[in-house]
Write a structure and sequence with these properties.
Number of helices: 5
Helix content: 25-40%
Oligomer: single chain
Shape: globular
Number of strands: 5
Structural class: alpha/beta
Strand order of the largest sheet: 1-5-4-2-3
CATH superfamily: Rhodanese-like domain
Strand content: 15-25%
Order of helices and strands: EHEHEHEHEH
CATH architecture: 3-Layer(aba) Sandwich
Radius of gyration: 12 Å
Largest sheet: 5 strands, parallel
């Protein structure tokens, strides 16, 4: 539903952009998925807990990178956040692509 309405970046671009000033990086997978390993620097905000309060907290950021396992949930979350006025960016390929690219994990 929201997949085409938000910008999408590669995992490499997300890795380069996530630490820029005034950015945020969230992982919308479940807490168990996140605990099993996640992209370095990502904060866990499971999709089913994403709320208006999260959107209000994230809205002032210049970019909010959103990642999940493969890109579907993060696209949906980025769409919801965009609708709420957040400058959300979907990370294409998700954690699977992040790991495959050899990017740092926690």
């Amino acid at each position: 539903m929201f997949f085409n309405s938000v910008p999408t970046v590669s995992v490499d671009d997300a890795y380069q952009g996530k630490d820029k000033p005034n950015t945020a990086f969230i992982d919308v997978r479940t807490s168990a998925e996140y605990a099993a390993g996640h992209a370095v620097g990502a904060r866990n905000v499971p999709l089913d807990t994403l709320s208006d309060a999260h959107a209000a907290e994230l809205a002032p950021h210049d970019a909010v990178y959103v990642i999940c396992q493969s890109g579907g949930r993060s696209a949906a979350a980025a769409g919801l956040l965009t609708k709420a006025g957040v400058k959300a960016v979907n990370v294409s390929g998700g954690t699977l692509a992040w790991r495959s690219a050899g990017l740092p994990m926690e």
